[in-house]
Amino acid sequence: MIQGVTPTLDVIVLRAAGAALVLDCRGEDLPRVLHWGADIGSAGEDELVRLAQDLVPATGHSALDEPWPFTLLPGSADGWSGRPGVALARDGRPVFPRWRLTRPVALDHDPDGAQRLTVDAAAHGVGAEGVTLRTEVRCEPSGLLRLRHTITQAQGADSGPLEVAGLGCVLPLPGTATEVLDLSGRWCRERLPQRGAVRFGSWLREARRGRTGHDASLLMACGTTGFGFRQGEVWATHVAWSGDHVAYVERLPEGAGWHGGPVIGGGELLAPGEVRLAPGESYTTPWLLATYSDQGLDGATARIHRWLRARPHHPDPVRRPRPLVLNTWEAVYFGHDLDRLTELAERAASIGVERFVLDDGWFGGRRHDRAGLGDWQVSPEMWPGGLRPLADRVRALGMDFGLWFEPEMLNVDSDVVRAHPDWLLGGEQRDWRHQQVLDLTAPGAWDYLLGAISALVEEIGIAFIKWDHNRDLHGTGAHAQTLALYGLLDALRVRHPGLEIESCASGGARVDLGILERTDRVWASDTNDPLERQLIQRWTASLLPPELVGSHVGGPVSHTTARTASLGLRCVTALFQHAGIEWDITGCSDAELRDLASWTALYRELRQLLHTGDVVRLDAPDGTDATEAGPALLTHGVVAPDRAEAVFAHVRLRTSGAANPGRIRLAGLDPARSYRLRRRDEAGTPSGPAISQPPWWERGELVASGAVLMEVGVPAPLLHPGEAALVHLTPA
Ligand code: GLA
Known about the structure:
Distance between the termini: 64 Å
Structural class: alpha+beta
Bound molecules: alpha-D-galactopyranose
């Protein structure tokens, strides 16, 4: 035992809501992970120590002489041959630290109810002088784990700077975790699932785009064979970071130490030389979220959603219900004109819109996407009286006013680049949407942005910023840029309490929980085509609850796919998120306006349920969920936390071979309750290719217990492709 180190407890169980992480803290090494998964029930200290002793596995030939238990930061020096949790170098030589505790492992409780474990250790080994580690593990009340490491180079160390080439968090899984599922995607087709068997080697996702990426893994999940939304054991992680990052599942023949299965982990992806610690400096990893469920992905993601919703700055569904938005982009593009936009605002207010957001095109020489980016002054050419007259009119109509910015980007043809050519990040990169990146760490650049944005927020009275980021970063690291961005967002929020910010990046290329610590919603995709959106939203929900995801009703013909969709499907699709409209509604027929108005009323009625309830995604019965085309028919819903109320949508995306879709077996309800299940056609009435629809559907409602609805199900109405049926369940 190192002097002064007496771990508070020998074996520590972090547990909440049916999940547990069991750590063996005996000895001088970093805590060893004995178990991460379902709760093991309460056990006394002696029992836990016995458990730790009894878990020692057999030793095979040609292996470590003693089986190696997996620590919270596995590395080569302690016998781990997999991807190391930490990669360090000094003076051009690798450093392989062995960690020794410097004080007892501390366990305490946060006022918010989380259990918090703090581990302090020092590195031993050649080149490791003065290097210390702090590991924090939080078990949130929802059972979500959050982990991060901090490496510090001590003050006064006389050796050269310590390079941190990699530092991440990793957890061991049992051998029953045999399948991996994560997401890829592209512009307008974000969140494309891919799944496969866990094999020897790595399923490794490296994001080198300087932003989270349309193809970000989002949630890397590993589970038992056949796991789905509602079934199977699942272990999943998310790296809460908006720059380059890595997420992986790795399996070695010897397994994850005592566990025998793969490991799952992730962290920031650092460019060579990007983090070099001088004496007194530290590097902290992003938080790695780790969530477990024995009830499929929905169970795992529910822990994340509950934790997000408990944050003090989470949008409050009662005090500040998510306002219905009208965004001008697909309505007018760069065609800014006070009269036209005033008419649009008036029309929006008349059908129940609550927030009017002026998109790209209001500043500098930005008449198209080749000029003006970076000149954050209102264009006198387009807006001779400034933006105030429009913003005031919007407020007089009872809406709040939002404005688009893309602060980290520049057009070379802009006053700001002419004045500060040195602000181009990494020199000039290959153009992407005719734009370059502004180096937030260049002297004066960050202050310019804070000053310019702040001045407009005050002058115009901006309630909401759509914060865009429309290109990947090339030829440069993203570490300092990402931290500077976070600092900028934090500073703006301090200056303007109550200001809401949306994270947009060519649609959904910056969807992560690093950005969402300092923003209020994401723009999930640039496609408003509801058939695409259904699938994008289905998988975005693996990380985010509905209230954090923007979704808009576009025009009848999608601007991104040229496909025509019914108003009903467009409305049902947007209803389930933070809803809005992105359509020139000054050209709508009276019937369309009536339908839109009844839909906005429905959104106002249901939004508290939608924005507080548990997300339920029914597994596609034919197993097509994690395929590129996705299911032909899908059902999803939201169930109130007390299970008294729910809303479900049943959507046909395309035709399929089965002539009759059979029954829909709902999920997430209270089996003992009696529900009235009612059609809600406010968003549109599906017609369906039927001679007769099920009697309950024709009648408009039925009454049944939760048990019947979940075990027996209800006959599905026949739907044409591109139609949706919406039902609302209330106590009978
Ligand atoms: C990006 C965004 C869009 C829109 C345009 C404006 O593509 O994702 O929603 O704001 O920029 O240029």
